[in-house]
Amino acid sequence: MPKQAKEMGALEVKRAAHPGDHENNVWIAAGGVSGLLLQITPGGAKSWILRTVIAGKRRVIGLGPYPGVGLADARNAAREMKTQIMDGRDPVAEREARKAELAAAARRSLTLREAVERFLAIKGKEFSSDKHRAAWGREVDRLVGATLGNLQVDSIDMRDVLAALEPHWHVRTDTAKRVRQRLERVFDWATVAGHRSGENPARWKGALAELLPSPSKVAKSQNWPALAQTDAARWWADLRKREGNASRALEFAALTWARSGDVRGARWDEIDAHRGLWIIPADRMKAGREHRVPLSAPAIAVIEGLTRLADNPLIFPALRGGMLSDAALGAAMRRIHEAKVRRDVKAGIAEDKAGYRDARTGRAAVPHGLRSTARDWAVERGIDHTMAEIALAHVVGSEVERAYRRSDMLDQRRAMMDAWAAFLDGREVAGGNVVDLKTAR
């Protein structure tokens, strides 16, 4: 019968030290469990090991460092391992398998935010510019980052995606629709890359389509409140009385039919005043294509009336020199509306009818709604549909049609923009046109 080692106590383990007479580790029998040893390095580090036999082969199994693993825990771990060995199991092989599984899971594990970053890094060449790529990721993070960003992609299910999108679906329909499409692409990539398995939780057809209303149906009731055509001249006169770059940017946006972001990012080197032209480069356009805007005399006058700041390329900078915020243009328009409400109420008009409101919804008009006002104006005057859509920088026609249409109808659009500027200035009578735009084609 093998000799039983004396059981060490907790204080003995604490005081145990390397003798210092050689450079090898020393093993001290801990007792209590056959084969349990306290290992001490020449540097004084201590750990627990178990010497035993598995399937006829002598094995040395590490049980963890001391004092992280105390004497009692080491004995319990050693007993459990010896029980497993007696049952015909190999605890070392099982532990290595668990480690490999955890390592594989760690490699697969990825948060949604990290997945978006990796997707963009890999698919980046498909984007028209670095700016577009960055904006793509920012929009996803802004809308669903707080709810999904830190979740593991392999744990996100359709209920999570639904909960993240639903609060925005009726108020930011277009944005929510884009983000859902982007999430679907990211989850597809994550599945192929081995970071998740199963159905795509952002899939639309046969999935989220059954739980959310169609974006096209929702968007019909979510159009931007537009300025009524009958109010255009009065609103224009009120705007021109206002000071500040936000007011001038709003004025320029109204005259050019441009989006708020395009105007706020407008640069001096994009303007050719001699030719009366504003050329917006492709990397600043939503559609990713260069857009030429013919400038009417009033639009040129807006720019010529501004002071160009040294070392600042922006035409309409904020007070601190950066780009104006979208909220700044909204605030400028809101102040015009509120001033009109006060005047109207004083004149005996009901408050809910006062100010500058959308004729259909009664909501106060906003900057983006100016594009709808201009589009309605063009429709009522029988202006060519394609020309008006090009002026709004919309994608017109099929890919084949666009390939064959080389002209952006610049000269015809110049006449249209002149007529629009005259309309804003109140120089167009109801039912009449300053120029015959249908024959100007």
Automatic annotation (TrEMBL):
Listed GO MF terms:
DNA binding
Q: Does the keyword DNA-binding apply?
A: yes
Query: Superkingdom, according to UniProt?
Result: Bacteria
Keywords for this entry?
DNA integration, DNA recombination, DNA-binding
Entries under CDD domains matching the protein: INT_P4_C
What Pfam families does the record point to? Arm-DNA-bind_3, Phage_int_M, Phage_integrase
Identify the residues that the record assigns to the Core-binding (CB) domain, covering every copy.
110-191
Q: Could you tell me which residue ranges the Tyr recombinase domain spans?
A: 222-417
Which Gene Ontology terms describe the biological processes this protein takes part in? Answer: DNA integration; DNA recombination
Q: Which family does it belong to?
A: Belongs to the 'phage' integrase family.
PANTHER family the record matches = PROPHAGE INTEGRASE, PROPHAGE INTEGRASE INTS-RELATED
User: What protein name applies here?
Assistant: DUF4102 domain-containing protein
